[in-house]
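Let's study a protein:

===
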Amino acid sequence: MNTNVVSFESLPQAVSLLLEKVDSLELLLKTQQTIISHAPSDRPMSISEAAKFVNLTVPTLYGFVSTRTIPFTNVGKRLYFSETELTSWIHSGRKQTHSEMLTSSKCVLTLKNKRK
């Protein structure tokens, strides 16, 4: 006997179950799409795309390139930037919070006091 057959009396429950499953699948797909869309790609970006990505002007980016402050690739007369490298570059400039500084300074003070 086929267990997937739904009788007329159980139709509302079956539709409710189907709607719940569709909702959970939709949520799962949306979650996966946001994970994929936030994953940094390694495709090369032009200087204007890179400027928009790091929220700087193109002349500022040229200045960073000339001082070799920002990671870039030079092919002929063209400049290219990697999203993953730019993301790493942005994260490398992170400053410690006040509580992190206090924690690290307590460790340094503790070590200095023990040496005396």
Notes: The first helix runs from residue 11 to 38.
